[in-house]
Amino acid sequence: MSGNIKLEICDHADGVARQAAAALAGVIRSRSETVLGLATGSTPEATYAELARMHRDEGLGFAGVTSFNLDEYWGLGGDHDQSYRHFMTDRLFRHVDILPWNTHVLNGRARFPELECRSFEDRILSAGGVDLWLLGIGGNGHIAFNEPGSPVDSRTRLVSLTQETIDANSDGRFFSDAAEVPRCALSAGIGTIREARSIVLLATGDKKADAVAAAVEGPFTEDCPASLLQDHPDCTFIIDAGAASKLASR
Ligand code: F6R
Fold it and tell me: What's the whole-model pTM score?
């Protein structure tokens, strides 16, 4: 399938951050209450820095924002410095006026993971669904921690990470040793993500070029989880020249 995915290609990664922040700010400004889905990882860091700047310099308000994060390492509490709760607090939440109780990050130390995952889905429904979900993409095409083979209708659940993902996250940017990386995570499912009213996926650097080309121009297949966004009615990939470099159609 060559799907509906819209492409915005920027020369450099800083352009990706500006475009992505502008897309998020547009949704936030267009309504009094906004539900955002958020991602962690290296790629959105500059976007969060730009949103923090817009809050500081342009008065972009987050008091009406409710957020849901894609995933959390299983076994890490929010006070662990590699937890995604910590990442979000450090990169975004503490810089803006979002209300802490409106920020939903899965609890990686929940006693009952199934209950935690069901409650996460219920909280998304109670909030009225996600207006815009921001995503990154793994080198193997994963979105959130939905590794290749994850079903298109998967929901939030406990998943195992592939060795490739463990290695990618222990290259010194986050963990410095693969042995420290948790083997499992709680992750929103592909079905959960696909229900967002709009989706913006960010990719920078030529390490992501194969995954981006497979997602946009390859078949609709669970082998490349990001390709399962092809039939979404409002999905945009904002990518830099490196990440776009293997697209035939660019
Ligand atoms: C993060 C997440 C992951 C990352 C992906 C890319 O919440 O769900 O899917 O988006 O692994 O990570 P970076 O941006 O570090 O290359």
Answer: 0.97
For atom 10 of ligand 1, the residue with the nearest CA is: 136
pLDDT < 50: residue spans in the chain: 1
Strand 157-160 to strand 71-73: parallel, antiparallel, or no bridges (unpaired)? unpaired
Q: Which two tokens stand for residue 120?
A: 């996460």
DSSP-assigned beta bridge partners for residue 239: 9, 203
pLDDT of 156: 98
Written as six digits, the tokens of 97 are: 């006026």
> Could you identify the residue written with the tokens 């981006």?
212
**Cα(65) to centroid of ligand 1, in Å?**
22
**Pairing mode, strands 198-203 and 235-240:** parallel
Per the structure block, which two tokens stand in for 171?
């290259």
Q: Is 142 a catalytic residue?
A: yes
Nearest-angstrom CA–CA distance, 153 and 190: 6
The total of other beta-carbon atoms located within 10 Å of residue 106's CB is 26
| Residue 192 · residue 156 · CB < 8 Å | yes
Active site residue 12: no
Q: What is the pLDDT of residues 162-172, one digit of tens each?
A: 999 999 999 88
